[in-house]
Write the structure tokens for this entry.
Amino acid sequence: MDKMSSVFEYAPAPESRAVVDLAPSYGLFVDGEFREAADGRVFKSLSPSSEEVLAEVAQAGAADVDAAVRAARTAFTGWSALPGTERAKYLFRIARIIQERSRELAVLESLDNGKPIRESRDVDLPLVAAHFFYYAGWADKLQHAGFGADPRPLGVAAQVIPWNFPLLMLAWKVAPALACGNTVVLKPAETTPLSALFFADICRQAGLPKGVVNILTGDGETGAALVGHDGVDKVAFTGSTEVGKAIARTVAGTRKKVTLELGGKAANIVFDDAPVDQAVEGIVNGIFFNQGHVCCAGSRLLVQESVRDEVLDALKRRMSTLRVGDPLDKNTDIGAINSAEQLARITELTAAGEAEGAERWAPACELPSAGYWFAPTLFTGVTQAHRIAREEIFGPVLSVLTFRTPAEAVEKANNTPYGLSAGIWTEKGSRILWMADRLRAGVVWANTFNKFDPTSPFGGYKESGYGREGGRHGLEAYLDVV
Amino acid sequence: MSPLSPLTAPSGLPTVPAHGPDAAARLATLADVTASDAALRRFLHGLPGVDAVGLEARAAMLGTRSIKTTAKAFAIDLAISMIDLTTLEGADTPGKVRSLCAKGVSPDPTDRSAPKVAAICVYPDMARIAKDALGDSGIHVASVATAFPAGRAARSVKLADVADAVAAGADEIDMVIDRGAFLSGRYMEVFEEIRAVKQACARPDGGAAHLKVIFENGELSTYDNIRRCSWLTMLAGADFIKTSTGKVAVNATPANTLLMLEAVRDFRDTTGVQVGVKPAGGIRTSRDAIKYLVMVNETVGDDWLSPDWFRFGASSLLNDLLMQRQKLSTGRYSGPDYVTVD
């Protein structure tokens, strides 16, 4: 018989950049218009996979924050007085435009953030549209949401979002806020401002009244000015625990309501009766999805000692097939690290892991020379005392720990300052329920990981923050209820 | 772009093919799990479970791989070379079988560089016709047997069916398992029947027809059953495991084939014995076939990317592959009149 076997190499399959029409510079979106920053300051947004400058964007200062908050305040009167059915029409329209422009937005997101196009296309964008559709449905049903007969909006919401899911985090914040009748001033992350600016264009395309959505690009200073502004009634933040604490201090003693969605150090718990092949997929998806830039990432693998070797062998084999490279290649599994700063943090923490005695492993993997890259990595021999078991790395780095009994698994899983998510892998239904009752984490996944749905509330325990986003629960953060 | 690294080699043991002389000794090391009905049941029920949602999600994700240009050309030729070109109709005649054989030898009359298929798959009474028609082309004759597709006949009849096909020159036997026995938990009965069929595959010259064992996944119905059936048949000496007959509603699916690929991978890791996989039924387009090859590539790797270890049981697939092949070489789509009907 003929021997045809040779290596099945995938030819490059790049998604076309031509679908995105990038301008050389972008202004702030205030009161329905794009404008330069009052003091004319700008900064550049880079593509983390090539370090190419994608565009220059305005750096909002205190005067711009003031203008945006005032625009939102003015717009609030009319927007909050609209019947829910009318607000719903705008939200449905936005959702449909997002679907129509999803290819363009997916490419843009991959360019600016570095995430693989497979994920921006198959995960981010469908969820973004789904969030707008979902909350559009609530807009005229708020009196049935369990928050009183006629729940009122809060006013102007200041929303500060991270760089890991730029457009999705925008959707999580903007959709419920608008559905409830609030107006918003949103600040996207410094390294990923572009999709929010494209969203501003979508708001115009949808005919959204001026000032209902305002987008201020800038850095941490802009964010601090925004959350500290007197005209703001509500602050919603997703990002690091450190910044979250600072925000909580800023708003303490004011009338502002706050929700915080912060860091995580989730345990992905694999029992000896787990469906091993699917558990391995879940471990990979848990920590390598979006380069591990996921607050609910399953960054601690807790594996039962009796199956440790089997699971690790299978995991290493699977990690060897991960394709790291060009985010716009449709076959890429792991894209670029979002920034030089984040890469430095990952590098520093992994070095600490080695220094503290954990054993490092990564598959042979050629990384591109330009841009910011980190190979998928795992550490074995990690103990609860190691920094890599306690601190959020926010990168493609998995710490492997073991346990012997379900009680020990619960104890170790909960032994963290965080409490955003957890995963349980077992074929035993009763054990799933027993564990889920005891895990102090906002989301507990059973035999899956990193699954999101607009109908499901998401949020943390302990230092992972407070408040819930998504589902009926997500309305509470934007309604004037006690 | 990082190239796919070769997958981890099986721990320790050098690999031997399931159809080779050394496989029996390897399987004998696991004799204790097949020593009794109870031991076999314990073993099969001790295999890790399969989470259906996760399995299907993984298969679907692999289906999103984008295979273009040179990779597509490679995959199309590889897929053609892996086809068991099949006719299993009550209306089959020697003329129909001969024309299929001619097509298998030279699939594209306008382009002699097109690879030939792996085998021609027929009913036992057509095996001799196919053997004569294929001559020294190197293409195998595969014959279904054991009262295909239902398998509902006395064992003596099934064995006679196999012996008949082997005597007629079949190089490969595609048997069906007794699904009734499997579903009612009589694993040892299924195991022994496969062993008996394997013996019946022996030729007087000392060689033997390769044995493919068909599960009929659509009837086994659960993924746990498919994993158990994979191990059961491999322990019994199957050279290939095959998804289905093509005669029921659910045949090969990406998910059930992925599961069987995981099973042959794990079996080789455990025993060092390499077993082939054949999805059959319902794979009609190049796009589908390429998805399966991606699954092979990323689950078991290069070692299985050859007609010796992976086959497609198909009839209409070949023409679609040929049309895609013509498109790649000429830059335009031809049409059904530019490939042969048989």
Summary: The two ends of chain A are 76 Å apart (CA to CA).
